[in-house]
Queue: 4 jobs
Job 1
Amino acid sequence: MKYMFLFIVSFKIIKKKFTKLNEIMGFQRSHSSQLKVQTILKAKEDETCGGGEAPSFSLRASNQSHYHNNKLMSSNYDSWLVKHPCALGSFDRMMKAAKGKRIVVFLDYDGTLSPIVDDPDRAFMSDEMRAAVCEVAKYFPTAIISGRSRDKVKEFVKLSNVYYAGSHGMDIMVPAIPVESSDGKLLNTMDTEVLFQPAKKFLPEIIEIFTLLKEKTKEIQGARLEDNGFCISVHFRQVRQEDYGKLEERVKSVLENHSEFCLTGGRKVMEIRPSIEWNKGHALEYFLDTLGLSNSSDVIPIYIGDDRTDEDAFKVIQSRGQGYPIIVSSIPKDTKAGYSLLDPSEVLTFLQRLARWRKTSLSNRPLHQV
Ligand SMILES: O=P(O)(O)OC[C@H]1O[C@H](O[C@H]2O[C@H](CO)[C@@H](O)[C@H](O)[C@H]2O)[C@H](O)[C@@H](O)[C@@H]1O
C-alpha cells in the first residue's frame, strides 16, 4: 500500500515536470534558434523606443547601440518562456481546462493580427489571418480591441461577425449579432446595437490638439500623425534618431495647455489621449457585461496582444482568476500575461487550432446533444 502510494505520487510529479518541459519545448520546436535570435534582435530594436507610461524618446535612442549579445538574449528569452509558456505548446492543457466553459476571444490588431510595418496605413492583415479570425468568430464571441480608430480597424479586418472597439477601447460598438452558448446553441440575439464612447465630450479638444500638432511637427522629417478618433498617434518610426528629442519636446509643448490629456508610449509611437479611467481592460469588461457574460463563473476570456496597452486587459483577466492572457513578443518583457506567442504567424496558428478544436469537439458530441 505504502509503495503504491509512493509510486502514484512520484508518477504525478514526473508527469507535471514533463508537461512543463513539453510546453517549453513546444515553443522551441516551432522556431529554429537562428531565426529566433534574428527576430529577437529586430524586435529589440523596435521595442527600445516603445512602451512606458511617460516616454523619454531621446534617452532611449541613445541606448540603442548597446545591444546584448545574441546568446544572452536567446537564453534570457528561454528563461522568460518558463514563466510565460508558449500558448501553442500549452494548447491542449489550456483547452482541457476550458472544456464545457464559454470561451470569449479578444484580439489586438497591430503586431498581433498584422505585422508591424513602417507605414501605418499599410498594416494589412493577410487573407489567411482574416479567414482564421472569421472561423474563430463562428464558434466564439470575438472582439478586436485596437488603438486605431474603430472605422480604420474595421476597414483592415473586413469581418462582420466580430465586435470592434477603437481608440484603445474608448469607442465600442456591439452590433446586434447572435451569441452562442458553449454547446453551440443560440444564447441571445441583441436586437439593438450598442455604442459606447466614454470620451465623447473631449472630441472638440482632440480636434484642436490634432491641428496644433500638425503645425508643430510639420518640419520634423518622417513624423506622422494619425487620427484615431478619441486619441492621436504621433509616429516616429521614420524619424531620424537625432530628431526624437525635438519631436517629443514639441508634442509635450502642445499638451502643456491641455491638462486633461496625457501622453503614453507604444511601439515607436507617442499617443495622446484623454486622462480618463478607461482602457482596454475596461473595454474587455464592457463587452463581457454587454453580452451578459460578466458574472458567469464559466467564462474563459482569451486576450491576445503585443503592446503596453494590452497589459490592462491582461490584468483584468488575471484578477478574474479565469482566462488566458497571451502576449505576442519575441523578446522577454515584463508582462501580466500568463502565456506567449512569438509573432503574428504564431497567432495565426493558435487561432486556426482554436477553431479546429471547437469544430472537432462539436462534431464529437453524442447525438442526443446535437
Ligand atoms: O492597439 P493596436 O491595434 O496594437 O494599435 C496600436 C498602434 O498601432 C499602430 O502603430 C503600430 O503599428 C504600425 C503599423 O505596423 C507601426 O508603423 C507603428 O510604429 C506601431 O506603433 C497604429 O498606427 C497606432 O495608431 C496604434 O495606436
Job 2
Amino acid sequence: MKTLSPSERAEILPSLDGWSLVEDRDAIRKRFVFEDFNAAFGWMTRVALAAETMNHHPEWSNVYRSVDVTLSSHDARGLTRRDVELAQRMDQFASGITRDA
Ligand SMILES: C[C@H](O)[C@H](O)[C@H]1CNC2=NC(N)=NC(=O)C2=N1
C-alpha cells in the first residue's frame, strides 16, 4: 500500500479528532485519557481485537488511565489509509468514555 498523497493528507488529517502529526517521522499521534485504568485497558482490548482483524497495529503506551498512541504503516514506511481507518476506529471506541486530556 502506498502512503497518503499530499492532497489526501490535506483532506483527511484535519478531519481526525485530536490527532497530530509526529515531528520526526511520517506518523500521527494522540493521547487518550479515560476515567480509570479499567476503562483504558478495556478500550485497548477492543482496539486490539480490531487491529488484529485489520492486521494493522498501533504503537502505544499505557500509564494508568492514559494511552499514548502513534500510528504509521511500517510496511509503507509512512501514513496510509490503514492508519486513518484505525484512528477513526479508535475514536469510535473512545467516544463518550474519555476525559478531556
Ligand atoms: C506480518 C504482518 O502482516 C505485518 O507485519 C503487518 C502487521 N501489522 C502492521 N501494523 C502496522 N502499523 N504497520 C504494518 O506495516 C503492519 N504489518
Job 3
Amino acid sequence: MEVFPSPLESARFIAGHSRDVSVDEEGARRVAESLFDRASAAEFGLAGWKSLHELNPRAASAEAVDWVFLVDTLNFSFWSEQEEQKYLVKYKSKTYSGYWSLCAAVNRALDEGIPITSASYFATMTLDQVRHVFRSDTEVPIPLIEERHRVLNESGTVLLEKFGGSFLTCVKMSEKSAQKLLRLVLENFPSYRDEALFEKKRVSFYKRAQILVADTWSVLEGKGHGSFDDISSLTIFADYRIPQVLVHLKAMKYSEELMKKLREGTIFQSGDREEVEIRGCSIWCCALICKHLLELYQKKGQDMREKINAVLLDYHLWDYARDHREEMKDIPFHRVRCIYY
Ligand SMILES: Nc1nc2c(c(CN[C@H]3C=C[C@H](O)[C@@H]3O)cn2[C@@H]2O[C@H](COP(=O)(O)O)[C@@H](O)[C@H]2O)c(=O)[nH]1
C-alpha cells in the first residue's frame, strides 16, 4: 500500500525546522480568542458554504458533487503579476476575480449548455474548448491554461475508467471516511499529489485533495455519503491566501530577508525552502488556533468538536482574507505558478 505522508505531521516537522517563518503561539492564542464568539455563529458552520457563496451549488446531488470535483481539479493559481491586470469573468451581471472567476466560468458554461462538469466531456476536451469555457472578460487569460487542459483530460479519463464518470462513486467507496476519500484521490488522481522534499524528508500539503474532501462534505451538507466522522482530521488548505492572513493577524511571522523577497515579488518554485516553510507553518499555526479554540470552549463546558475543525477555520480565514483585501495589502502573498494551489 502506497504511503502518503500526513500533512499535519509534515507541518509539525516543518515548523520545528523552519528558518524564515515562525508560528507565534501567543498570536495564535489571540486569534482563537478573537474567533471565540463567532465560532458558534451559524455562518462559521457548514451551512455557510452555500448560504455565503452564491456561485456554489445549492443541491446535494451527484451533479453537485461533480461540480465540486471539476472546480477543485482546477482550483489553483489565480494570482496575477500586476494587480490591475487580471483575469476576470462576468456572470449574471457581476464580475468575479480569483477563485470565484473559475466558478463563474464553470456556471457560465453550464448555462450555455456545455456539460463542463461531465467527465465524458472534460476527459476529451481540446485546448481550444478549454480556452473558450475559461475565456476572460479582460485581455488577461486564466493562468496555466495548458496545465488546466492537461489535468482536465487526465482527471476526466481516470474518473471515467475507475469510477464510472461520477465522483460520488468515489465518495461512496470512502465509506464515510475523509481519510479514505483523501487516500482514494491521491492514489488515483496524480495532479492532486502536492508534496515536497524538506531537510531530505518527503512532506505533504495535499491542498487540493483536502479541499476536495472538505467541499464534498460541504456540498453534501455533512449528510448521507458525506457524513465523514473524521472530518476533523483534515488540516487547513495551504494556498497563498491563508499565510497572508495569518501574518496579518500576527499569528505567523516572516524573517526580514523573506519579507524583502516577498515585497520584491520574487517568484518561487514549488518545493523551494521558503515556500515549504510558509505552507507548513500555516498548517501548523491553524492547528494551534483550532486547539486553543476548543480549549476555550471546554473551559465553558461546551464540547465544540462537532462545530470547530480546521476546515471551518480555513473557510472562515479565507473568506476573511477576501473581505479584508484592502487592509491586508501591505502583507505580500508568496508567488508560485503551479497546479497545486
Ligand atoms: N485555503 C483555502 N484556499 C482556497 C479556498 C478557495 C475557495 N473555497 C471557498 C469556496 C467555498 C468555501 O466557502 C470557500 O470559501 C480557494 N482557495 C485558494 O485560494 C487561492 C485563490 O485566492 P484568490 O486569488 O483570492 O481568489 C488559490 O490558491 C485557491 O486554490 C478555501 O476555501 N481555502
Job 4
Amino acid sequence: MAPPAGVGAAVAGAAAVTLLSAALAFYGPPLDAGAHLRYTGAPYFAAISALKAGADLSHVFCTREAAPVIKSYSPELIVHPVLDSPDAVHEVEKWLPRLHALVVGPGLGREDALLKNVKGILEASKARAIPVVIDADGLWLIAQQPTLIQGYQKAVLTPNHMEFIRLSEAVLRDPVDSSDRRGAVLRLSQALGNVTVVQKGEQDVISDGEQVLECNLQGSNRRCGGQGDLLSGFLGVLVQWALHAGPEKTNGYGHIFISHFEIFELFSALSCGCLWCVLPHKAVQPPSLPEYGRSTTTSDMIAEIGPAFSRLFET
Ligand SMILES: NC(=O)C1=CN([C@@H]2O[C@H](COP(=O)(O)OP(=O)(O)OC[C@H]3O[C@@H](n4cnc5c(N)ncnc54)[C@H](O)[C@@H]3O)[C@@H](O)[C@H]2O)[C@@H](O)CC1
Ligand SMILES: Nc1ncnc2c1ncn2[C@@H]1O[C@H](COP(=O)(O)OP(=O)(O)OP(=O)(O)O)[C@@H](O)[C@H]1O
Ligand SMILES: [Mg+2]
C-alpha cells in the first residue's frame, strides 16, 4: 500500500542529522580519547540509514579529523567538520532551520568537551521543537543530565541492554528489575516525562509512559555491531514522518510513539511491532538475505532497507 500523500511527502522531505565526537586536548585527560576516530562507522550507519529510509539529505556533524573518513565511506553524506570547533554550537545551530530531525550519539564518545557542545546543540534543537533521537553516547550524556530531555516528548531514546541499565539507574536511582522489562521501560519513560523509550534487544520494548508495546517479530538472529545505529538513523526519519502526519491522521494522538502505530494502521502493513525495528528485521529475514546467514553484517542490511520497505508497503 502506498503511503498517504502527506506522509510520503514528509519522508521525502526529511533530513536527518548525526553527531559524532572529537578529542579536545585542553580539557585534560579525556574519558574516551580517540572515540571519534575509532567509531566512524556508527555515524555512517545512522546517516546512510536515514537516506535509505527516505530522507532527501543526511548531514553528519563530526570532528575535523573524522570528517574525511566518514565522507570517504559515502559521497551521499553531507559532512560538517565542526563538532570540535570552539563555536560548534553556533556552527550546527545555523543549519537547524533546514533540518527536520536530529540523531544524537552514534560514535560520539564521552569526552566532556564534546558532550558540552552536544548539550548546547540539544538545547538549541529543543528550542526549535526539532525531534531528536538519542542513542549510544548521547544516552551517556542523558544519564549524566536527565533534565536535558525531561518532558521533551519529541525525543525518542533507543538504549541497548547496558545503556538502558545505566540510564534507568541514573534516572530512577534504583536497580533495574530485569525480570520485568515492560515495567522497567514504562517506569523510565514516565520518570522522564513521557519521553518515548525503545529498549533494544532480542525483542524491542517500547513505551511512551502510557502504553508498552513489544516487537518480537523474527528478525536478525543475533546482535551485529551497527544495527542499532541503523535503527537510530531510520527513526530520525520516522519521527519526523509521524509528527508531520499530525493528529488528524493519528486519531488525535499526540505522542510520536502512538502516531507511529496509527501510521502502521494507515499502511495496513503490520499487526504488531514497531516500524523502526520491523524494517531492519525484515531486512535480514529470508528470503531477502538467505546467503548471508550468520555472517550478516550491518552493511548487508543497508542494501536491503529499500527492498524491505517496498515489501512492507506494497499494495
Ligand atoms: N562500527 C562502529 O563504528 C560502531 C561504533 N559503535 C559505537 O561504539 C560506542 C560504544 O557503544 P557500545 O554499544 O559498545 O556501548 P557501551 O560501551 O555502553 O557498551 C554496551 C555493552 O553492552 C553489551 N550488550 C549489549 N546488548 C547486550 C545484551 N543484550 N546482553 C548483554 N550485553 C549486552 C555490549 O556487548 C557492550 O559491551 C558508541 O559510540 C557507539 O555508537 C557501535 O554503534 C557499534 C558500531
Ligand atoms: N540478541 C538479539 N537477537 C536478535 N536480534 C537482536 C538481538 N539484540 C538486538 N537485536 C536487534 O538489533 C537491534 C539493535 O539492538 P542492539 O542491542 O544490537 O543495539 P546496539 O548495541 O545499540 O547496536 P550497535 O552495535 O549499532 O551500537 C535491535 O533493535 C534488534 O532488532
Ligand atoms: Mg548502539
